[in-house]
Q: What sequence folds into this?
């Protein structure tokens, strides 16, 4: 899929998600993550698989097992403060890149929720990054 098609597909998924309370026909459970662009600083909205984890969500940078990380990975590293949409709920969060045992536990949970993640990891030599989207607590 070329970049223009991917952008069009993402836009259609985002519109359907917001119009239908977080449900998108033909897709599994999704979340929307709004991240500032690493270079532009402009907000970008990415539909990701919904992987609930300890009261919040994970963002798995699988890119279908491709050898490189998805575009949103660099944006998230540069600007970890994000907005997450789940169904009709929206919350602010900070993305924390997981490592070691913590990453392993989170990835195993992600593969339980969405089994293709395990296959994607087998397809690539890179360790698929996993981010914990830590909800901001209200003061």
A:
């Amino acid at each position: 899929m070329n970049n223009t098609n991917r952008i069009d597909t993402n836009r259609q998924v985002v519109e359907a998600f917001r119009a239908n309370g977080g449900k998108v026909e033909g897709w599994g459970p999704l979340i929307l993550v709004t991240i500032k662009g690493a270079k532009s600083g402009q907000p970008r909205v990415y539909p990701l698989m919904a992987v609930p984890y300890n009261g919040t969500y994970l963002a798995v940078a699988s890119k279908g097992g491709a050898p490189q990380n998805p575009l949103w990975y660099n944006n998230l590293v540069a600007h970890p403060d994000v907005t997450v949409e789940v169904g009709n709920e929206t919350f602010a969060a900070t993305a924390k890149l997981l490592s070691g045992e913590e990453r392993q536990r989170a990835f195993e949970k992600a593969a339980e929720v969405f089994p293709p993640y395990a296959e994607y990891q087998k397809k690539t030599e890179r360790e698929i990054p996993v981010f914990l989207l830590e909800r901001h607590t209200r003061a």
About this structure: The domain at 28-135 is CATH 2.30.110.10 (Pnp Oxidase; Chain A).
